[in-house]
Amino acid sequence: MSTQTQNRRIGIHLSTTGGVDKAVAHAPEIGANTLQIFSASPRMWRASKISPAQGEQTRTARAAHNVGPLVIHTSYLVNVCSQSDEVRQKSIVAFRGEIERALALGAEYLVLHPGSYRGMTREQGLYLAAESIARAIDGLPWQGTPFHILIENTAGAEFSLGGSFEQVAEQIERLRAHAPVAACLDTCHTHVAGYDLVSESGYAETLRQIEQTVGTKHVRVWHCNDAKAERGSKLDRHEHIGEGKIGLEPFRRLLHNPEFAHCAFIAETPVDAPGDEERDVRALLALAE
Ligand SMILES: [Zn+2]
Ligand SMILES: [Zn+2]
After folding, report:
1. Half-sphere exposure in the Cβ direction for 269 (13 Å, CA)
2. Which of the residues in the chain have pLDDT under 70?
3. What pLDDT was estimated at residue 4?
4. C-alpha 84 to ligand 2 mean position (Å)
5. Catalytic site residue from 236, 239, 277, 280
6. What is the pLDDT of residues 257-286, one digit of tens each?
7. Domains of the chain: which residue ranges?
8. Is 152 considered catalytic here?
């Protein structure tokens, strides 16, 4: 590897069947030095707490294997800007649980899709999302930890907040006074939302837009997913690295960009067959060389 990129943090979303510490220990076996997990079932409202022993086992495994950052993806059910009071209240409670588990596990990042504001204006959605997130974290002991909530850009479907870099930046701006916030950008979402990562000039323009909105230093995680769908299609279908409409080159550019040297690069690609996780991690590792 070249000297500039040898410290790149590269990993993939892994299952925690058997425990978070087992997932951490598994990461280096497939070439990863960082990983993303769910800290509970992503399709259930109820979740159990992380015990101090589980937290300790995770910290020990991370130290032993030099794995980090630890990224947690929020449950798909959480919608912090729902127009339904009931869903929003449940989302605030569930998101607070996500933060508690992230802190108990010593995770650096908790990725959140900013939600759907169907039935309201975007302005109301932005307001509710910020208010809900601020309430969810209120009083929790995040100060002095590296913990950050990462607002993820979305595929740009109707009524979804975060379909543009401006919206991600706006969300971060509103939350800055209440919570530690930064951004997670997803290559597939960026592509299908309409940004050009593929052509060299388009990539440069997309980077310029990131710099002028979110700011490259606020991007902490790149979700590295190739896209099954066309640019601008707003269809969120992840594909293996190099096998979709994005192709290998944009990933190479991102991995070599010194502006993103501080980022974790994490695939969320499909697992269709045994070995797929390792294949995508190795593909990113090869591109970082
Ligand atoms: Zn993603
Ligand atoms: Zn996606």
Report:
1. 31
2. 1-4
3. 63
4. 24
5. 236
6. 999 999 999 999 999 999 999 999 999 999
7. 9-288
8. yes
C-alpha distances in angstroms, 8 versus 79, 108, 136, 152, 254? 32, 16, 32, 20, 11
- How many other C-beta atoms lie within 10 A of the C-beta of residue 47? 17
What pTM was computed for the model? 0.96
User: Is 189 part of the annotated catalytic residue set?
Assistant: yes
- The tens digit of pLDDT for each residue in 219-242 reads 999 999 999 999 999 999 999 999
CATH of 9-288, one of 3.40.50.10470, 3.20.20.150, 2.60.40.10, 3.50.50.60: 3.20.20.150
The DSSP output letter for 10 is: E
Distances (CA, A) of 88 to 81, 123, 180, 268: 7, 16, 21, 27
Residue 131: active-site member = no
Tokens of 77: 């059910």
